[in-house]
Amino acid sequence: MAVKTGAQLIARTLRDLGVTVIFGIVGIPVVEIAEEAINLGIRFVAFRNEQACSYAASVYGYMTGRPGVCLVVGGPGVLHALAGIGNATANNFPLLVLAGSAETTAVTKGAFQELDAITLLAPHTKFAARASSLDFIPNAVKNAYRTCWYGRPGPTFVDLPADIIQGKLARGFEVPQPENLLVSAPPKASGDPALILKATQLLKAASAPLIIIGKGAAYARAELGIRQLVEQTQIPFLPTPMGKGVVPDSHPLNASSARSAALKNADVVLVLGARLNWILHFGEPPKWSPGAKIIQVDICAEEIGRNAGASELGILGDISLVVDQITASLSNWKYSASAKFPSLLAESANKNEDKAEKAALRQTAPGSPLTYQRAYHIIKTTLNFLTPVDDGDIVYVSEGANTMDISRSIFPLYHPRQRLDAGTYATMGVGMGYIVAAHEAFNATPETSTSRPKKIVAFEGDSAFGFSAMEIETLARYRIPALIFVVNNSGIYHGDSTSEDAWRTLQDQTVANDTKKSEPTASDAQGTTKGLRSTSLLYETRYEMLATMCGGKGYFVRNEEELERATREGFASDTVTIVNVIVEPGIGKEIGFAWQNQPKEGKAKL
Ligand code: ADP
Ligand code: MG
C-alpha cells in the first residue's frame, strides 16, 4: 500500500518497529492512525477511558519485554493517559504514548483539545517530542520507541499535530526502508568483576544470607539463572509481590511465609531487581537488621546506594548476566543447612502457615459472612481441581487493599510475570486494563504464541473495581473470557455500621435481579454519627450485572456453595464473568497495612 499521508506513515513506522498491538481510544484526528494501523495488520484495542488503556500498554511492556504502545487524543486524552505515564514511571515499565494535538497553525488560539503536552509531560517521561514535520515522523517515533525500552524502562511521548497526521507526503518523499527502523533488544551489561568477587565473599561469609527477587528480575527474564543460583547455593529467597514466580513459590527455600523473620535477621542480602522503596521498607530498621549488608543488582546506577543500600557493594548490570557471574564465582559453595537462620525461618514459616491454614479451613457458620481467607480457599481449591496449579495456565490480576494483600499469600505462583497487581504506585483501577494486556500478551495470537493459552483470573476489591468498571464492555467486545471476582466488603478497607443490616438484607434476596429490598440501609444511616464513612460503598451494588449487561455471565455469591459453583462455571465460561462475592465487612478493624512502620496507636479504627 502506498504511503500518502502522515497517518499512514505513522502506522507504517509502528509496524516496521515491530508493534503488533496498540491500546487506545480514538477521536479526530488520531482515528486515522488507528485505522491505518488496523489496515496494516496491527491489532487496535479500543478502550472506554484513556486511564485503562495507558495502564494496559504499560504492563504489556512489562509482560512481553517490548514497549507497549498507547494512542490517545490530545488534551483530555493526554490528561487521562497521564495516569498510565505515572504508573509506568513508578514501575519502570516501557511505554510509548502517542497523542494527537491541535494543528500547529491554531496553537494558542483556543484550538480543539489544545494542550501544550510537551511542557506537561517532559518532566514525567524519558523524553517528550513533537513530530513537527512529516520528515521527522519515522525518527521521532523510532527514538521514542527505543528510548522507553533501553536503559531503565519508562514512558516516552510523541505529540502528533493534526496537520501532520492529516498532511500529505510530498511527491518523491522517501519512506524509510523497514530495515532502517529495526530496533534490536536493549544491549546488556555484565557486572564489574571486582564487585562480583566482593559479593561472593560476603555471601560466603554470611551467617544469614538472603536473596530478594524483584519485578526487575522478572522483567529481565532471569528465571533460569536465578533458580540455578538458589539451588546451587541453597540460600533462602524472598520474592516481592510481582517478583513471585521467578522461582516457583513451592520451592523449599522460599521464605515468603517467614517474610518478617527473613528481613529482620538476614545479614547479607542480595537484591535482584527490586528498589529499596516502601515495598521493602527502604532496607531500614526496624524491619531490617541494622547491620545488614545490602548488595543491590540493578540496571540503573542511580538506584545503587539508595536508602540502606551500600553504594560500595552495588553491582550495575543486567540481572540475567550478573546472576550467572555470581553463580560462577561462587562455584560449588553451598550455604550450610545446619546454620541457625534456616531453622529460624522454618519455625516462623510453620507458625504463619498454621495460622493461615486455620483461617482457610474455618467453615462459614450459618448467619455469618464469608471471610476473605475462606472465600479464597474455596476459589483456590476449586481452581486447583480444574487446572493443576503448577501448569501455570492462570494469570492472576489483583488490586484493592485486603483483596490484594490477602490473596497474594494464598495463591501460589509457579511461573514468572503471571501475577499483576497495583504495583509500586499502589494504583487502583489498573485491573481491567491489565486483564486486556495479559490477554494480548498470552492469548491474542495463538498461532505464534510459545505458551499455552491462559485463563485470566482477577481479584478486584469493590472499590478498586469501580475505578475502571466500564472496561468490562471492552473485555466483552474483544471476547476476553476473564473470570473476575469482585470481592465485595462494602467499602474501601472495610464497610461501615450499616453493612451488617445490609448484609442480612442481601441474604434474603433471590439470585435473580431482586434488588428491591436494597435501598434502606445506606439512606437510613445518613446523618447518624455512625453512618456512611469516607470509606463506605453500597453493599447492595450488583456488580455482576455489569457482565450480564454486555453478554457475559454474572454470579451473585453469599455462601460457600454459591462460590464454588460460580468459580467452576466462571472458569469454564467463554465470555467475561463477574462473580460478586459478598464477604465480611470487617467493621472495627484497623486501617493500616503491613508495609508501613506505623505504630499501633497511630492507626485509625472505624
Ligand atoms: P519490586 O516492585 O519488585 O520491588 P521495583 O520495581 O522496585 O521492584 O524494582 C525493579 C528494579 O529492577 C528497578 O530498579 C529497575 O531499574 C531494575 N531492573 C529492571 N530491569 C532490569 C534488568 N534487566 N537488570 C537489572 N535490573 C533491572
Ligand atoms: Mg472493599
Could you walk me through the main structural features you see in this protein, from its secondary elements to its overall organization?
By secondary structure, the protein is α/β, with parallel strands linked by helices. The protein has three domains: 6-181, Thiamin diphosphate (ThDP)-binding fold, Pyr/PP domains (Rossmann fold), CATH 3.40.50; 193-349, TPP-binding domain (Rossmann fold), CATH 3.40.50.1220; 362-513 and 525-602, Rossmann fold, CATH 3.40.50.970. The chain is 37% helix and 15% strand. It is built from 22 helices and 19 strands. Strands 2-1-3-4-6-5 form a six-stranded parallel beta sheet, with helices on both faces. It has a six-stranded parallel beta sheet with strand order 13-12-14-15-17-16, with helices on both faces. Helix 1 packs across helix 2 (31-39), helix 1 runs parallel beside helix 6 and helix 11 (259-265) packs antiparallel against helix 13 (340-361). It is globular, with a radius of gyration of 25 Å. The site of magnesium ion (MG) has 6 residues, from helix 17.
Could you list the spans in which at least 5 consecutive residues all have pLDDT below 50? 517-527
Assembly type: single chain
Residue-averaged pLDDT = 93
Strand order of the largest sheet: 2-1-3-4-6-5
Give the CATH class of the largest domain: Alpha Beta
Question: What fraction, in percent, of the residue positions are helical?
Answer: 25-40%
Instruction: Please give the alpha-carbon distance between the first and last residues.
Output: 64 Å
Secondary structure tally, helices: 22
Instruction: Give me the Rg, rounded.
Output: 25 Å
Ligand catalogue: adenosine-5'-diphosphate, magnesium ion
CATH topology name of the largest domain: Rossmann fold
